[in-house]
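Sequence design from tokenized structure. All designs in this work follow the same two-part layout: the structure record, then the generated sequence. An example of the structure record is given first.
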């Protein structure tokens, strides 16, 4: 199970890094952001006893959370780069006035973070109304009682929100300080 989760995480981090540009440049960032975004919620879920720390549950929720971290990492990074590029004149103005690259791009980082968590927020708000909750249906088909499946779904949704918040915050605020347009010119 640990090997399967490690492979999932590695593929997800590499996929997100490639979507942000150069794999070697962005892999440390995506791995750091996704690592925090995956480990913190899962540690809370399992240490609080919300879900049994069995291989079956760990693999199921681990895969769901890793997939969400990959998506939010990519969305946050792309939105930040796009916002900085679109508002480059404003960034240059801030830099010309002596602002640090972080100060010059902080609004763009916030924008990227907000944009990246929209899919997870919408999924959470509309579960059961617009879409059938996948973890719930899968747990029922797997032989779990509806009450247990519902509890599992609620825990999954909470973990997804935490994952999206942590992952997108790390990516957005680490990628935002820029000294040039384009994805490869982040400030040191």
């Amino acid at each position: 199970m640990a090997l399967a989760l490690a492979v999932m995480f590695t593929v997800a981090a590499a996929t997100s890094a490639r979507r942000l540009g150069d794999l070697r440049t962005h892999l440390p960032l995506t791995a750091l952001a996704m690592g925090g975004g995956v480990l913190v919620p899962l540690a809370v879920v399992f240490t609080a006893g919300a879900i049994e720390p069995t291989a079956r549950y760990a693999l199921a929720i681990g895969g769901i959370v890793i997939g969400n971290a990959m998506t939010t990492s990519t969305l946050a990074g792309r939105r930040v780069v796009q916002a900085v590029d679109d508002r480059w004149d404003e960034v240059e103005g801030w830099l010309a006035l002596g602002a640090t690259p972080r100060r010059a791009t902080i609004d763009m980082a916030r924008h990227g973070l907000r944009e990246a968590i929209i899919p997870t927020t919408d999924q959470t708000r509309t579960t059961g109304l617009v879409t059938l909750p996948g973890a719930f249906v899968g747990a029922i088909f797997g032989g779990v009682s509806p009450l247990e499946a519902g509890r599992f779904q609620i825990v999954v949704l909470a973990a997804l929100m935490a994952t999206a918040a942590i992952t997108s915050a790390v990516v957005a605020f680490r990628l935002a300080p820029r000294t040039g347009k384009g994805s490869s010119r982040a400030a040191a």
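The longest helix spans residues 55-86. We note this feature because it recurs in several other targets discussed in the main text.
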